[in-house]
Amino acid sequence: MSSIYVVSLGCNKNLVDTEVMLGRLEEGGHTFAHSPEKAEVIIINTCGFIAQAKQEGINTIFEMLQFKPSCRAVIATGCLSERYSRQLMEEIPELDGLMGVYQYSRINQCIQEALEGKRPVYTGGTPAYLDCFASKRKLATPQYMAYLKISEGCNNHCGYCAIPGIRGKYTARSFDSLINEAKMLKALGVKELNITAQDITVYKDGDKGLLELIKALDSLGFEWLRLLYAYPGRVSDELLEYMNNSESVCNYLDVPVQHVQDGLLRAMNRHYTQADITYLYNRIRSFNSGWGIRTTVMTGYPGETSRDFNSLLNYIAVHPFDHLGAFVFSPEEDTPAYNMEHKVRASTAEVRLDGIMLRQGEISHSLNQERIGKRYRMLIEGRDEQSSQYFGRCFFQGPDVDGKTFLSADAFLRPGDMVNVVISDAFAYDLYAQLV
Length: 436
Known about the structure:
This protein has 14 helices and 21 strands. The protein is an alpha/beta fold. The model has no long low-confidence stretch (mean pLDDT 95).
């Protein structure tokens, strides 16, 4: 058996795949190295969504190859491997093996063959491995939080997105397997369960949809349930009402809108309009519990004019989101947008990106200021040794993307503790609090 070092790149959905792979490796009798220098086998689980992610994956592969020959095998897995399997194996002869997105159950076989010099390549397959092995995964997140991936693939076919070509058609996981996995995570001590998928809103297994799933998960006793990646035109009033009235479902929604101009939304093949976005936004803001809304927008999509961009800027000023991420359009092979005319200069798209984030900094600061003096439940994530302050998140702050809340307290607190705090100061992305 070998000592394994694993690098996980990309989104939280990819992280779940990494955890499934870790569970299979542990079942296979392998151990885990804490650094690549001490590993006999290195595995890189890659992302292949946009150019920047692809470049990160390639750079990481070459970085890990530097540890040969003390490392006996380097294996690439994940989206980049699925999408460019032939090119990677031909152009990087030092790579010892490769697995795509639906072959994680065969990782032990892949390692054995790589160590024998066979350079195995496993791609294709189906997402059925999740229902079989996800409940046996080994968490790579802190013990107090985890992700629950409820489906694979996507049928939305957005004009810019390569995911359907990589992960295939939408496939919902079985309701029972998700509940069993959630029970396992609860038994491990998970307090925050983050529901994730390419699009959670279309979940359906038989007669059970997303609302029924959330209700069932809510009954298991997690401190927080958080919904990530909701498609703007498909969030039902019934779901919002349930979320608003539940004590454990966070009043937080991650709803990527990408843009607000109807012409661009049509060009992107997004199946909603600005009116749909506004209806959802107003519906959420009608609640009085201080919901946190996160969105994502894109700059530089083919055909985006300066007027379109200014409309986006004005829209987020009138409809301020608590958290907003932005990225520049990346032309991806085998997507409709790749060959579209009226392309926007990369430099122009970058300037627009900077403009939107500058505006969002002002918006976030203003919305955070409104939280001063209010009391919230806070999840402790750690302690900064230099400042002696604890840090963590409140319900309106998602993991890894939404900033932190910092807490000055004499009490001894551990990661995973839930405490009551009052917000004492606020900036663009971070908040400061005191124990109640």
